Amino acid sequence: MRRAFCDAMVELAANQRYFFLTGDLGFMALEPLRKVLGPRFINAGVAEQNMVSVAAGMAAVGGKSWVYSIAPFCYARPFEQIRNDVCLNRLPVRLVGNGGGYAYGAMGATHHALEDYGALLTLPAMRVYVPAFDTDVEPMVRTIAGREAPAYLRLGRSELEDESAAPPYAAWRRLQEGGAGVVVAVGPIAGDLWSATRARPLAGRPAIWVVSELEGDGRAIAPPAALLGELASAPVLGIVEEHVAHGGFAQQFLHFLALSGRSVRRVVHAHALGYPSGRYGSQQWHRKECGLDVAAILGRLAARAAT
Amino acid sequence: MSARDAADRRDAEELSGLARRARRRLLRMHYECRIGQLGGNLSAIDTLIALHHRVMDPQDKFILSKGHAAGALYVTLWSLGVLSEADLDTFHADGTRLAGHPVPGWSGYIPVATGSLGHGFPAALGMALARQLQSEPGRIFCLTSDGEWQEGSMWEALIFWAHRKLRNVTVLIDQNGWQGFGSTREVAGLQDLGSRIESFGVQAVRVDGHDHEAIAAVARANPGTVILLDTVKGKGVSFLENRMESHYLPLSAEQYAAALLEVERP
Q1: What is the sign, positive or negative, of the torsion defined by CA atoms of A177, A179, A184, A186?
Q2: Domain that holds residue B160
Q3: Do B130 and A61 touch (CB under 8 A)?
Q4: Residue-wise pLDDT tens digits, A279-302
Q5: Taking the model in full, what pTM does it have?
Q6: Chain B residues closer than 8 Å to A58 by CB
Q7: How is chain B split among helix, strand and coil, in percent rounded to 5?
Q8: 20 to 30 A Cα–Cα from A198, which one of A114, B51, B81, B240?
Q9: What does the mean pLDDT of chain A come to?
């Protein structure tokens, strides 16, 4: 998605008020953006706290600042700067974290972001954007640019076999209908599930929804009526996210359902578990260890629906 | 005495008069709501008065990176007519905007919330850089404490500043030599901060942080530098001066009366 992100940002670069700060990352990806922005492309060096405060200062005098790093360095190291300088001041600083979840695979635990949106969604005015497909990135960047408020964009890698099948971007989308329960997934993992099940007969596959915008106070969480309608009769609800359970989407979504007086009969929550074995591998390897692979998710859904 | 000298002397007297009134109001404000933290406010207030009355233009911005000197900032804004008596009376009260550390969203004089140390300086650099890149006028002034330089983000910011060579920002350090639980020398060996800063490539100049005219002259003449202010924690109230407890403890009625008498002296 980095390429799509760079292309989308290049489109915005003509606006002289845009500034792009990177924490010394973006090699072989952001060079076109650096070229068009010139001095407004700022390599702030390996100093994320300073980078976020500088971005906030730029926004405080009318700048539109974007901050880029790999996901863990974008939100965890400078968390207090995001909280105090960006969110308390409600400044339009857009944080971009590349490689959410286990995306950096065998690079190791320090390079994973398993609790990024849960932590950020505790902050005032913050909205989180998680594209599912490459084609989401450009409209999502425009959406973020159009909202003068703090934002976090969690980039990953599209997992759809046929990218041309991706539906137009929306905060909530139904990817397929199905009779074997309803799955709501956050981000690219929805494409993995969809690719694996779309050829199955209707009754033998779950309906799949993907959610791409999250907000901490519940306003943005309100799901479409069609999804709520499906949940009323679904044998099982599956919630899938490459994020730890605490503070994740499932807690928000189930909280919303409970507060709005809705009930679901059975729930399966597939989420990141950290490092149960203490060993490391690819993103897919970590997903499998956590039961976030397609086979495990479908198996748990079927088992739970049968209870 | 030449006409110029006479005018300078009049200005200096006016500025010391302003600072005296501000000190008095600061003491009253803190006393009435039984808030301590006078030490770092009294060390900073002369700089705040000098900057706001003699140095800054309307398009300039000021960031109080040492947010615990919020009281000194509020009385300075009061001395400018930006805040009223009634506003100051709300300090620390329920429903106030005048919190113990500056909160955001209500005054252009407080461009960012501060209070956690090590934030205001890099934010000031961001403002300065945005203005430089947009060829916009207006300088940025930022007041930090000395203990604040124990925060890593200050040195990140210093590297960034030296590299960018921003000339539209001035950072002042209130070197009162004391912090929350000891002297800066005892806690972190922070003596000779100027040399350390200069070794990063930013010029540092030194001035008496209670001499209003000297502060104003140095701030006007040295854009793009660090100004090391030699200050006294609790300045103006003898029993608060250079005492760590002045960082925290509120004044008793007797102490308040004695403090008022002391700050009245020219």
Answers
A1: negative
A2: 3-264
A3: yes
A4: 999 999 999 999 999 999 999 999
A5: 0.93
A6: 126-127, 129-130
A7: 50, 10, 40
A8: A114
A9: 95
Structural domain that includes position A278: 163-305
Task: Mark whether A8 and A71 lie in a shared domain.
Answer: yes
Q: Spell out the residues 6+ positions from residue B260 whose beta carbon is closer than 8 angstroms to its own.
A: B24, B27, B28
For residue A303, the tally of other CB atoms under 10 A from its CB is 12
Of B112, B121, B153, the CB nearest to A89: B112
pLDDT surpassing 70 at residue B44: yes
Closest CA relative to residue A264, chosen from A241, A233, A240, A239 = A233
Q: Which of B114, B153, B159, B165 to mutate to test the interface with A (most CBs of A within 10 A)?
A: B153
Q: What is the pLDDT of residue B144?
A: 98
The neighbour count for residue A196, using CB atoms within 10 Å, is 17
Contact A239, A211 (CB under 8 A): no
Residue type, A260: S
Q: Are residues A14 and A116 in the same domain?
A: yes
Chain position carrying tokens 């890099």: B122
Tell me the three state secondary structure of residue A101: strand
Measured between CA atoms, the residue of chain A closest to residue B115 is A84
Q: Decide if B63 contacts A60 (C-beta within 8 A).
A: no
CA pair distance A105, A286, nearest whole angstrom: 7
Residues A141 and A27 in one domain: yes
Q: Residue A78 has what pLDDT?
A: 97
Taking residues A262-291, what's their average pLDDT?
Answer: 95
- Find the CATH number of the domain harbouring B112: 3.40.50.970
